[in-house]
TrEMBL record:
Single GO MF annotation: calmodulin binding
A GO cellular component annotation in the UniProt record: cytoplasm
Region annotated Actin-binding, chain positions: 176-198
Protein name: MYO1B protein
Domain Myosin motor: 1-299
Keyword Nucleotidyltransferase: no
InterPro entries per the UniProt record, alphabetical: Kinesin_motor_dom_sf, Myosin_head_motor_dom-like, P-loop_NTPase
Gene (UniProt): Myo1b
Keywords: Actin-binding, ATP-binding, Calmodulin-binding, Motor protein, Myosin, Nucleotide-binding, Repeat
Transport among keywords: no
Family the entry assigns: Belongs to the TRAFAC class myosin-kinesin ATPase superfamily. Myosin family.
Pfam families in the record: Myosin_head
Gene3D superfamilies with a match to the protein in the record: 1.20.5.4820, 1.20.58.530, Kinesin motor domain, Myosin VI head, motor domain, U50 subdomain
Length: 340
């Protein structure tokens, strides 16, 4: 309920992660996403801009001479961010907020991608300074324990820097930038964790809580965008391997390129052409119902194949037993006739 500096920088990181989530997971639908949905780059700029960003204003207040308080920091935000459409303050120059009684004088509000969050400015300046005395760092660096020594590299006398230590906000901003750079070099898979209830109890599903999380994680928008394009995509080889039993021409073995096999398979199944598209290395399926149809056909075909295997096995077993009994009968009959 009470959000301070810690929650502010956490939400800043969430904004950056949401931004890279858009860039990395929706590249093929990027243009449509920009047309249809909100791009949160403007919020990230509000927080991290080097000249007019909230973190830059906070650092400026922490470093300037004279009396510095949380109220002076809020006054600066009111001046610099007054006209920003995602920033709200009781004392903002934007007149539509002057009569907003739900927003206290010592707070400001940011319209994040997931919704509005109100922040208490009390403690912002002190928490951002986060100063650690140099003599304390040097004392910890001299510790005999290797872990403690590694945690305070700035205490090394050979690396003493007389400059003012970086603020907590600037350190966090640098960490987020490193994280973004690292993520952009990867091929990430996102897993969204949903809490079914607040009690951490089994077999308890709170509909309101789950819906709230789905809305604030932006999952509905992501699903809409994915559905607007191709919901399913798979390389030709594994696709042919999984569904080849649905077509007589591809079962049990297909002699030729995998793409050609997939084309024969989809033509045989009479899937409408608007439901799929062939890429250089993958098959793209537009609608989930097409995939569900393939899975249902595969399931039925597997059952038929299992029945066929069982029938052939039982026939082989009975024939083997019959031939053995026939052979035994001939042996018995020949010995009987010999001694009859």
């Amino acid at each position: 309920q009470d959000n301070s500096f810690e929650q502010f920088i956490i939400n800043y990181c969430n904004e950056k992660l949401q931004q890279i989530f858009i860039e990395l997971t929706l590249k093929e639908e990027q243009e449509e996403y920009i047309r249809e949905y909100f791009n949160n780059a403007i919020i990230c700029d509000l927080i991290e801009n080097n000249q007019t960003g909230i973190l830059a204003m906070l650092d400026e207040e922490c470093l300037r001479p004279g009396t510095v308080t949380d109220d002076t920091f809020l006054e600066k935000l009111n001046q610099v961010c007054a006209t920003h459409q995602h920033f709200e303050s009781r004392m903002s120059k934007c007149s539509r907020f002057l009569n907003d009684t739900s927003l206290p004088h010592s707070c400001f509000r940011i319209q994040h991608y997931a919704g509005k969050v109100m922040y208490q400015v009390e403690g912002f300046v002190d928490k951002n300074n986060d100063l650690l005395y140099r003599d304390l760092s040097q004392a910890m660096w001299k510790a005999s324990h290797s872990l403690i020594k590694a945690l305070f590299p700035e205490g090394n006398p050979a690396k003493i820097n007389l400059k003012r230590p970086p603020t907590a906000g600037s350190q966090f901003k640098a960490s987020v930038a490193t994280l973004m750079k690292n993520l952009q070099t990867k091929n990430p898979n996102y897993i969204r964790c949903i809490k079914p209830n607040d009690k951490k109890a089994a077999h308890v599903f709170n509909d309101a809580l789950v819906c709230h999380q789905i809305r604030y994680l932006g999952l509905l928008e992501n699903v809409r965008v994915r559905r607007a394009g191709y919901a399913f995509r798979q390389a030709y080889e594994p696709c042919l391997e999984r569904y080849k039993m649905l077509c007589k021409q591809t079962w049990p073995h297909w002699r030729g390129p995998a793409r050609a096999g997939v084309e024969v398979l989809f033509n045989e199944l009479e899937i409408p052409e608007e439901e799929f598209s062939f890429g250089r290395s993958k098959i793209f399926i537009r609608n989930p119902r097409t995939l569900f149809k393939l899975e249902d056909l595969r399931k039925q075909r597997l059952e038929d194949l299992a029945t066929l295997i069982a029938k052939i096995y039982r026939g082989w077993k009975c024939r083997t037993r019959f031939l053995l009994m026939k052979k035994s009968q001939i042996v018995i009959a020949s010995w009987y006739r010999r001694y009859a």
